[in-house]
Amino acid sequence: MKIKVLIVDDSALIRSVMTEIIGSQPDMEVVGAAPDPIVARELIKRTNPDVLTLDVEMPKMDGLDFLEKLMRLRPMPVLMVSSLTERGSEITMRALELGAVDFVTKPKISIQHGMLEYTEMIADKIRSAAKARIRARPHATTDAARAPGEQLPPMRNPLASSEKLIMVGASTGGTEAIKQFLMQMPSDCPGILITQHMPEGFTRSFARRLDSLCKISVNEAEGGERILPGHAYIAPGHSHLLLTRSGANYVTQLDQGPAVNRHRPSVDVLFRSAAVAAGKNAVGVILTGMGKDGALGMLEMKNAGAYNFAQDEASCVVFGMPREAIAVGATDEVAPLNELPGKVMAHLATHGSRALRV
């Protein structure tokens, strides 16, 4: 069975280009193209698509309003089509909170040529979206957005907080998973390095959003920062993020080398650097995502003495990356997303000081 895709975009050019891209794939077909959400509602009823591509800014009904209603009344996989602007990135972050699976960006210039260059990426994201677990969303409220899990108590172990580190990798569905993970972290947790597959320009909005919600400080990594307890550093969309040492300190490093597993930033790059620089003082966490990025890097972490966690299948949007890490024997524990922060902190509380004395 082919993946049925409905395109919703007010631009006739984008609708045409997306139709061409999707139609060129042997395993998918376009079942309709709507210029606005009003038309889209009727086409959804008529065509019952597997995946919806949705422009974030449209006439008649805002894309976010439409998405919020859709995820309450008729939840389905939605791939946002966003502009590469600050406003576009902020709207896209909100769309992911409302339940969109992932997003692609419109090129700033030469839209038709640029979108056609994205063919493989768009097709992969549609395939990933079609496999996603979609759950109905309650009516969004500020309180609900701020309370995905109970705040964990402080560590009260300065040595473990300063010497231990947490490495996190995610892809499809990861923005919400990372938010839930970080919002439970106490203000004195060990430093956290994060690689989330996301293009340049969007990671800064993502970090700002998390910083406004979490007890810990969350920033887009700049490279050369000393890693501090109670701080999280997110790989910028243009570079790999690595962990290095400078004397007694752990420090961030950025690298614009080639993509690894077709990604820059790559989770494997982060995890491999943690294996070398931190060894048994690192804890690895692999969250929801399509593909295998992070699996072999996490195995290197484990072989170097790190203790690793994976998100379980039931709580993942896409169980690709955790499955691959589990399959190669890289993980020590598998748990639902809402339990992972507590399990990570419990492990650090019981093993932190002992590991440091070895």
From TrEMBL:
Q: State where the protein is found.
A: Cytoplasm
Q: What is the official name of this protein in its record?
A: Protein-glutamate methylesterase/protein-glutamine glutaminase
**Which catalysed reactions does the entry list for this protein?**
[protein]-L-glutamate 5-O-methyl ester + H2O = L-glutamyl-[protein] + methanol + H(+); L-glutaminyl-[protein] + H2O = L-glutamyl-[protein] + NH4(+)
Q: Name the family.
A: Belongs to the CheB family.
InterPro entries linked: CheB-like, CheB_C, CheY-like_superfamily, Sig_transdc_resp-reg_Me-estase, Sig_transdc_resp-reg_receiver
Residues the record lists as 4-aspartylphosphate modifications: 55
Q: Where is this region: Disordered?
A: 137-156
Annotated catalytic residues: 171, 197, 293
Origin species: Undibacterium arcticum
Keywords in alphabetical order: Chemotaxis, Cytoplasm, Hydrolase, Phosphoprotein
GO MF annotations in UniProt:
protein-glutamate methylesterase activity
Free-text note regarding domains: Contains a C-terminal catalytic domain, and an N-terminal region which modulates catalytic activity.
Residue intervals of the CheB-type methylesterase domain: 159-351
Q: What is its EC number?
A: 3.1.1.61, 3.5.1.44
Q: Which CDD domains match?
A: CheB_Rec, REC_CheB-like
Recount the PTM note: Phosphorylated by CheA. Phosphorylation of the N-terminal regulatory domain activates the methylesterase activity.
Residues of the Response regulatory domain: 4-121
As for what it does, the entry says:
Involved in chemotaxis. Part of a chemotaxis signal transduction system that modulates chemotaxis in response to various stimuli. Catalyzes the demethylation of specific methylglutamate residues introduced into the chemoreceptors (methyl-accepting chemotaxis proteins or MCP) by CheR. Also mediates the irreversible deamidation of specific glutamine residues to glutamic acid.
Q: Which HAMAP family match?
A: CheB_chemtxs
Q: Which SUPFAM superfamilies did the record assign?
A: CheY-like, Methylesterase CheB, C-terminal domain
